[in-house]
Amino acid sequence: MVLRELSLLLLRDLRDPRLRGVTLTSVKMSDDLRQGRVFFSHFEGRAHAADAIKGFQSAEGFIRKNIGRALGLRYTPQFDFEFDPGLENAARIDALLRETRARE
């Protein structure tokens, strides 16, 4: 639910150029829904992750307000944003496998 709402915010409302190319991969929320860790990947890889985190931090108040309102939460959650290397690692493994097959 939180992932969906964050994704919609990213698509519709967040205009920060540092967030272009960002894809949200997962969200892990605490049991009381007061803390959340948002994992994302970036189209251009790890090199742009720090800029994306700064973009998220800059929009944190806007994100918290809209997520709290959309989900009807009593307390608006605090979010930490973290780069998810999973897609980047998968692409690297895929490239290695293709290279190995090409050698055979």
Give a summary of the structure in a few sentences.
The chain has a single domain, classed as GMP Synthetase, Chain A, domain 3 (2-Layer Sandwich), CATH 3.30.300.
Report on this model:
With 104 residues, this protein is of the alpha+beta class. It has a single domain (2-103), classed as GMP Synthetase, Chain A, domain 3. It is built from 4 helices and 3 strands; from the N terminus they run αββααβα. It has helices at residues 2-12, 49-58, 60-71, 86-103, and strands at 22-29, 35-42, 78-83. The protein has a 3-stranded mixed beta sheet with strand order 1-2-3, with helices on both faces. Strand 1 and strand 2 form a beta hairpin. Helix 1 crosses helix 3. The longest helix has 18 residues, at 86-103. The protein is elongated.
Give the topology.
Layout: H1 2-12, E1 22-29, E2 35-42, H2 49-58, H3 60-71, E3 78-83, H4 86-103
Parallel strand pairs: 2-3
Antiparallel strand pairs: 1-2
Helix pairs in contact: 1-3
